[in-house]
Amino acid sequence: MTRTSIVLLGLLLAACNTSTPAGPPKINAFTATPASLPSGGGSVRLEWDVTGASSLDISGVGSVTPEGRGSKTVNVTASRTFTLTATNSAGSVSKDAAVTVSPAPSISVTPASSAFVAGDPGGSFDAVVTGSSAAVKWSLEGPGSLSSSTGPSVIYTPPAALSVLTTATLTAALEGTGLSASATLSVAPAVLTGGVLFYKADGSGTVGSLGAGGAFTPVKAYAAGGLPAGTTHFGKPYELYELFYSAADGSGALGTFDGTGAFRRLRTYAAGELPAAQDQVVSLNERLVFYKASTGTTLCGSYGPDYGFSNPVTQTGYSKDWNLVVRVNDANGVFFYKQPTGTGGYGTYDAACKWSYVYSSYSLSTNWSHILRTPGGVLFYRQSDGIGALVTFAANGAPTQTGTYVSGQLAKGWEQVVSTPAGVLFYKADGSGELGTFSGNTYAKVKSYAAGELPAGAERLARVGD
């Protein structure tokens, strides 16, 4: 072989040695040790075994020496995945190695807040724990009780009775960690205290309470239809129950207002289930009396087990056109009054709804616009001039005038007057009003409300709750 041939053969062999690799590199192994770390993290050793790579790269770490086997120690503080990428001129391949870091211990309570009413069933609360297997211990600050003191969940039961809106705190503690979380519980009385309903005929309105010094607190607002629409009269056949009555069709509803202002219906009356076209409604002990002015008749009935109006007794022979009919004492005495003439009549109803006409020798002023029972007696108020009188009625109907209020003591023009535990509330539709108390000939003004300080636009007012 000539020298020239030898040189050419060497060049050919050199060319073969620098040819493209047969394929991409191969990652035989890629691991992260340890694969799990406690809260806070720690050191992790990354190890690899790679064949045929011209370069190696680890995500978050950078380039490493492309040897067959290698390792690198890194610090890991949060769960993450490392990706090893091996490359040569024929391509690249990748492999992942995951490291899990346990989260820091934490605890929360769900729901974080909840509202309850005294006497209602309770509600369940859960402790949501991460990063710890420690036991959960529950505690309660405030009224009510818990189903357990330990465990992942607990049931809170509100107290059977409560007089004022109260806040309780439910706490879940993660034992041995110093960690805890709380839920706020709002607990309302079963019945609204000092409640007044400002009602509009479309079924909208506002329920609020009158507190010390006459401070008015709105409790719940109702959009149109939120309350029975078309109500013409309110009644209170039971001490804590409220009747909505529509004279247009004899429909209505019976229920209570709880401490949150929510109306809880006990019974809805379809059209005709109550007597229709009645002009006055009087609440007696567990009975109702309906009076119709055009015929001079009454319907007195009681309530069945389902609160249905039952066993109505029709009474005839009353005078027609009484304008105001009011219960005036604890003897189930009912007073009838005619505004144009100032005449009046008095009688009582027994447990069987039998009427006894007792007294008619009344000499009264004309055109009293409002007659209402108050703790101190029956208040007569005349809207046109602001005069008033306080009268008590004996069981036999005999009246005793205990107070006289001349024009100027009471303002004139009040459109609605209602007795509340805080005093007598006088109201105008612009949201203005006045709260006062009566004793003898003295009227004591408790608070005046400028226009808008009370809910405006109310067409009827009613005392609700206790």
Automatic annotation (TrEMBL):
Where in the sequence is the signal peptide annotated? 1-22
- Name the keywords, alphabetized: Signal
Kindly give the PROSITE patterns that the UniProt entry links to this protein.
Answer: PROKAR_LIPOPROTEIN (PS51257)
Source superkingdom: Bacteria
Indicate what this protein is called per its UniProt record.
Answer: Uncharacterized protein
Upper lineage is: Bacteria, Thermotogati, Deinococcota, Deinococci, Thermales
